Protein 1
Amino acid sequence: MLKSSKYFRSSLGERNFWGFTKCFIEEKREDEAADWWPSWTSLRPLDVSPGYVDEQFVELEELQDDATPNFVEEVVSLFYEDSARLIHAIDQSLENHPIDFAKLDNYMYQFKGSSSSIGAKKVKTECTQFMEYCRAQNVEGCKRTFQQLKGEYTTLQRKLEIYFQ
Amino acid sequence: MNIGSGSLVTVPSSTGSWKSGDVVSDQFPVGLRVLVVDDDPTCLRILEKMLRNCHYEVTKCNRAEIALSFLRENKNGFDIVISDVHMPDMDGFKLLEHIGLEMDLPVIMMSADDSKDVVMKGVTHGAYDYLIKPVRIEALKNIWQHVVRKRKYEWKDNNFDQSGSVEEGDRQQKPSEDVDYSSSANEGNWKNSKKRKEEEEEVEDRDDTSNLKKPRVVWSVELHQQFVQAVHQLGIDKAVPKKILELMNVPGLTRENVASHLQKYRLYLRRLSGVSQHQNGLNNSFMGHPDATFCTISSLNGLDLQALAAAGQIPAQNLATLQAAALGKSATKSAISMPLDQRNFFSFENSKLRFPEGPQQLNNSNKQIDLLHGIPTTMESKQLANLHHPSQSFVGMNMQVNSTSQHNNSVLMRLSQSQPRTQLLNGANNGSQVSRLPLSMQQSLSPVLTQSGIVDNARGSVYNPVSQASSMVDFSVNQSKELQSYNFSLGSNSSGMSSLTNQGMLQEEVNSDIKGSRGFPSNYDIFNELQPKSQNWGLQNDGSTFDASLHPCMQGTQDVSSQLLLQQGISSTHNSGQNRNAPIEKPMYSNGDEIGHSNTMCGSQLNSGGGNMLAVKAERFPDADHQNTNIREQFGRDDLMSAFLRQQASVGPVETEFGFDGYTLDNLPV
């Protein structure tokens, strides 16, 4: 689905015949054996699994310009670095006994902040969920949610990788 | 970058295109120098890019301490600061306060947290704006308006300086607040301002070196008469600064001037209308110090006092009736707050000596509160201590205001009697005011006290600086330090602190009340001290609400010319204070809003009663939070003050003290 035409104006990929960013189409092909996929149905890589990123991501794309052609990539890698650190810290905290919920909440708050900065919608949702369990001091809920969160995070990484190619 | 560095900056009428204050650039806001602080590297990078895209000059750092050192090394190197709320090394609000106190730069807070209390905290701490993450570039495109606005008001204040005129209060705060209020088109509408919590607020105190001398408005008898006429024409309930200003049609008079004067006037009226017997008793004793104190509260200079004295000539009954009818409950509060302010002045003097007592003040204030019932004499010393907690005084003041109808009576009485005194004071103040400022500045501690011009005479240096806006700048720095110390001493940085500070204020108020009755000088000192402190309080994260209340008090309390100065000074010095001041006025306007009144009072009063205040604060604090966001600081204070005042009401004496002019405290029977 075409969320917004501006997305397709992204300079990240070369334009195809239809004016859509080629990279998306290519991504499609790679991802879903889309050799036969009509070019006009190019979708944003992230649209393939809708909900992974939101408008904030588009904002980042718009910030990118000739002066900083790799801005989005730069930001995303910063995000990866930071989130890797947070994930590690959260993992460790969850192993501790007793669990320090305040600390967990704090970590997750940071995680939520940075994931919302890049528009990682699903990850952010998981963060919110986690924080709720944290407040309720529900250890199982936290752990479960965190696993889900990691899953979403990994998927996002995959998607973005494709996007950047 | 503040304009303040003593030079007059030509602020363009609208979006002035100036950069660090002295240069008017046509390209403004291009090149606006922004400092961004955020511990999240992703977000920091994004913000940097966005700001660059807006053609701003961006400096980023991920640590608050680093940011502060940048700012300190380069005092005029930045125009605006954007900071995250949650940071590992320092709380964003604390940073906000520091910046406000030291550099007087507009600060914008950001956070992924959009809950009301956090935003309110931003307001009360004096943030110019609060952005919710993820931040969009559109939100950043307009941040230059905060810079312009701030400068514009500073410039206006500076330019308004008239020789010998007393400043109303901190103008710095007012401008933004004013703007906020204006935009809400409802100065008297407390609720509206509350809703505007996300709007820019005045943030920082001007404690920056900008030694801008704030122009002062001398409320001469004629001017005051005009004012009173306008108020009566509109009806006390409907008298909002804007309309009053229009009716008065005095060139050069600003809304802020009118607003603070109105605050004081309301306090005065309250005092006149509802004084309890206890107060009456006290009032009697205060009669010796008549109107002067009363006037002083509202930041009137000596002349003002005269005006008030004149006003005071209105038969007590009539006035009381008028007020009772018009002001109703709020009137009581305002009236009370006014007296409180005055008291603070007195107590401030005493407290001046005690400043360093900080934490003790709370205790003292408790005692003082008791004393207030009886005789302030003993409390003086204690009050002084309490006064040190500027925030406290405010709280106390508010409380007193709220709780005392008695004050009104006493005030009224005082007014009639104070005429001669007023003149005396006026004379004293006038002369001293000017000179005082510099003195007070040195004293830094005294910031609180500068309110009463009279006090200044007596005290000399102490008072001046505080009240006066210009001096405030210096004070703010000093004050902030003091205040900070107090703040911390009072309590933790958490909101609890604010409550404490607030309480402290109350205590101070109490103390100040007691003291005020004793004599001006002491009050003033205390007041000065308290005031600045209160401001600090506001700035500090702790009880941001608290701060807010403090400022308002300050403004309102300047009965004496110095008072005005004091408030202004204090408020100006404190960024947060500033905001507070303005907001405070607003609250005052809303009838239902005790806090507003109390805020004004708070400024001057600085809590005197520690013990009571604590209790009060607890009650009031939540209220404060709900108060207008603009006032953010004020709210805290107001609440405290109201709470305190209420307590005071029960206490009795406390109120009376405030009701009486600070001057009259001397005569309080023990």
Note: Chain B touches chain A at residues 39-43, 45-46, 49-50, 53, 86, 112-113, 133-134, 136-137 (CB under 8 Å).
Protein 2
Amino acid sequence: MASQMPPPPPPQWVRDLTSPPPSKAKSGAFPDPPGYTSSNPQQVARSKSSKNAVSQPREPPSTYEMDTLKLKKAWELALAPAKQLPMNAIGMYMTGNSLQIFSIMMVFMLFKGPIQAVLNIQGTFARLETEGNKQNMLMVKAAFVGCNCLALALGIWKVNGMGLLPTTRSDWLAWETAREPLERAYFVPS
Amino acid sequence: MRFPLFAAVCILLRTTVAVFADEAWNVDYHYALLGEPQEETTFFHQPNPTSKASLIYTLSKRGVVGAVNPRDGSVVWRQLLSPNLTSSTDRGFLRAGEGQDTIVSGYGSQVAAWSAADGRLAWTVDTHGPLKDVEILELSDGKIESGAKDVVALSGGGSPAVQRLDGASGAVKWQHKFQEGDEVYQLSASTTEVFAILLHKTVLGYIKIRVVSLDPVNGRKTDEYTLSSEKELASAETIISVGANSASPIVAWTDAAHSVLKINIIGTKTVSSYNIEKQDGQPVEKIRIHAPYHANSLSHFLVNYQTATSHWADIYHIDHTRSITQLAYSLPNIAGQGSFSTSTSDANVYFTRITQDELITVSSASHGVLGRWTIDNLGLVSAPHEAIVPTHTVSELSVKGDSVSAIRTAVLLSTGDWVLLRDSKPVWARPEALADIRSATFATPSVLEDFQHKLDVETHRNFVGAYLHRVKRHLEELKHLPSYMSSMPQRFISGFLGTTDEGAMASDSFGFHKVIVCATGNGRLMALDAGSASRVLWSRRAVDLDSSESWQPGLSSRADVIVLERGSGKSRQTFNATNGDPLPGIPDTHDLQSGLGVQYTLRDGVLEATRTDKANAGSVWHFTPMADERILHLVPRPVNDPVASIGKVLGDRRVLYKYLDSNLALLATANDASTSAQFYVLDTITGSILHSSAHSGVDLQAPISSILSENWFAYSYTAEASDASTKGHHLVVGEMFESLVPNDRGGLNAATNFSTVQSGTDPFTLVQTYQIPEAISKMAVTQTRQGITSRQLLAVLADVEAIVGIPYNALDPRRPVNRAPTKDEQMEGLVQYEPVIEFDPKWFLNHQREVLGIENVMTNPALIESTSIVFAYGLDIFGTRLSPSFSFDILGKDFNKFQMLATVAALAVATFVVAPLVMRKQVNTRWQFT
């Protein structure tokens, strides 16, 4: 029963000690001074929330509910690239078809994003995948791949617009050779 | 508000597009030449009576009258007398009256007076017959006071006549016509009389000298007599001299064997005869008489005898009272060739003798030497052990007391260089032999050739082999490291300051320093450096030519070997291009590929082609122009004409395929009866006509020029005025395609080789005509190493003495007519067709210089793709480097190395200074609370 008892509220100095003023450091590249232990605000917040949770206990969701929730979340994730498409398309349209460093960089990002996303697909959905929703997850993944393919297609459309796709005769002109004449004629000045 | 801004932008744009001023006089070079001066028409003369300094005036073998500043050898002015340089056999006459500010030239049938100071034309008169002589009347009767002295001109031809022309206006004062039959020979004027020398042909074929004396006031004949006896003169060539304009002019002649010298003082009938004794047992080959040219100088003259190995001279005085000549003294025999010149100072006459190593001045009165100088080094480029012989000289001297205080001698040497000696030191030299280049070729210096060969080896090996070869080459190059290191500071400084002097041939990695080998009219080979102007690399005698003999050499080069073909005899010699050494062995002329080879030549107005292989030799085809037509010229496609892209990429990225055939030739014919010109594009294997066009109402006197390169041709002509159009110069450009449908390769489709004998396909030709402001006398096209760079059509404008480089874009026959270009056409760079092409001032390669008498323009690729080397010759020499697509593969002079290095240095310093600051700030943010 003693464990059920809420502990007495800690004194003010303990609270001050455990929650120092938030540090302003933005870069973590430097070692902290000796004896300094880091504590970031999230931890503090979590500890607070846990406190609240403890203070207001809630019924944990069932496994089915969890699966449904996770599936919903997964769908959201899967369709996120498609939602970005119109914005990307407008961006691409605005940059024009000229070969400039900005448009080239944007096109590069446009290709890099979907390809990276597809490669990391397992990692992306690992947290949301459970034994129960495995079947549905396949659909979700397919949708994710499809959406990324759409983004890729947008990139290809853009590249084509910029004239970078070797689709015309002139792109292969360098590999065409002139016909060799079988005879040669020479002019001899008299 | 907006307009000034726009104007400012426009001005800025202009300056960025134009040629950089430092490039304009740096990459190009120009020799303003006159041609080899002639002995009789070269003299020192004061441009006006008040000036003390005199100029050297000459009428050269090339028909150019000019004045040269004796101080630095620069041309003060020059005038081209005959527009057609090659056909001039005329010697011409150039006279200057004492104390006159005009000089008078006679050339062809034109007598012209030029302002001596600036070369402006005072007057010109046509004498309606080939000029035989022009003299200036130095009358002593006092009637003609100051002002211009009159000119007497003797013209031959159908109606031989003597005319007296007013010195100020050129108006004819009187004219005396001779009966036909006698050949008029020369003119001589004393202070009181005008003598015309006529040659009377006797029945036996000998010549008698007939003298007709005329009254200078009214031109009436006062006397006539015959001098030489029967059988004395076989030809006019043995008449040595007809002394002109001296106080007592003489006529001298000899016999064919040069054994007797006969002298007559014109106006008297006595003939003095002198035996010419042989010295050293050698026959006398040449006799020259040098007499002063002033009416009031002493009447002394010098007779110069030359044998093959030595020369000497006798000096004669004329005794006026007895009207006889007397031998005064002799100048000793000196081995080798020499030359004499006459100078006057007041009434005194001085003779200057120049030999290969000495300059001696004597007075005409006595044999005492007034001045003697030793000539050490003329500072000329010539072959080792070659004797440089003075051909003729003119000199100007000043005498103080009994010695010559200063002497200036302009001497033409056997090398074709015109050198001015002050005392005995050369002050300047003008390579006048280059004014008569018969043939020229580009060659690669040996060093560069080796390098190029090594690079070629690397491209043709497999990857590993090429890599090993390169490593080996670099190890070998380490040998040069010490010398490279020692030259490093100098290179660095010069590169840093941008004052690089373009280096020597060895360190030329861009291929600008090509050797241009020229065969000149005097039988020499001269080599110029295409990269650094005004440098004759080597010069050597290739053949021995007489003064009257001419040759038609053909030069070609194979890498660093020069092949000289001499005339039609086709005797071949080979030379090293770098130093001019003759090489043993003769390379084969044609490296023909296997298969059918065809040779075609233009002979007797017919173009004829024969097979080259011995097995079935014989005529393949011949092209005979139609009746009344004559062939003007033939332009084959250059043998070395690389094309990078076999098609033209359109704006929508489709391809229009070029009709590329290395066996094309453009033939121009003219019809004098109907004044029309025809142009044919021929396939030289089968002789078939691929394209032809005819133009009527063509001015056939105006130049017609044409060019063929890649898949396009261009020609220009001058159209006469007609009902439809006014007189004007036209430039026609045609471009040939395999098909006019994009992405279509025509009838042969994807075949990798073709034979026009078996399957001939005709090209589709687009033609466009432009009106141009000037007639083009010669065309050439820029050549680059791989043909990636766009082309420029180089056109010689003879009338404005300029060479323009017209970008091919401006001539493209695909320019849309009567409509604005579509978006795709704009992307291709096509602009709307306009019938008139104005020559942009930026196109003028010569900038503000006048390039006179250009006959040919040659181009050659440099080692870097962007650049083409241009060399133009004729009378002047002009050379430059062109980058038609701008210098995309080399840093220009405008690139600021200093700025770049300073920027890098500043960034480095900034990094080192700022890094600790940033570090401290970042640590502080950790430690400091706000």
Note: Chain A is about 55% helix and 5% strand.
